[in-house]
Design goal:
0% of the residues lie in helices and 55% in strands. The chain is mainly beta. Strand 4 and strand 5 form a beta hairpin. The chain is globular, with a radius of gyration of 14 Å. The model has no long low-confidence stretch (mean pLDDT 97).
Length: 119
């Protein structure tokens, strides 16, 4: 099983970045996908969530209206489009794949990608 994030980097305030998460080794279309972020000394927080078929999307209040999560089950990828970035969006962003059903909980994480918003 692999969950691999890419697309992080340094961007100026007000700029945009698009993060990509690629999953392999599991039935991607059966998993809900989420993006989390974490800064030093703080707990990991949920940024955006998308259900397995993409019909349900939820966002943290702090990113609502600026970030958009989407997925392509044919390509086993989930995207996080981040616009109007702020310095407080600086964090390591993690992709999560989760499935919780009669077979039990399966929960996979990527290694994270750094996003830095600074002038």
């Amino acid at each position: 099983v692999q969950v691999v994030e890419s697309g992080g980097g340094l961007v100026q305030p007000g700029g945009s970045l698009r993060l990509t998460c690629a999953g392999s080794g599991f039935t991607f279309s059966s998993y809900a996908m989420s993006w989390y972020r974490q800064t030093p000394g703080k707990e990991r927080e949920l940024v955006a969530y998308i259900s397995s078929r993409g019909g349900i999307r939820n966002y943290a209040d702090s990113v609502e209206g600026r970030f958009t999560i989407s997925r392509n089950n044919a390509k086993n990828t989930v995207l996080l489009q981040m616009n109007s970035l702020k310095p407080e969006d600086t964090a390591v962003y993690y992709c999560n794949a989760k499935r919780d059903d009669f077979e039990g909980l399966r929960d996979y994480w990527g290694q994270g990608t750094q996003v830095t918003v600074s002038s």
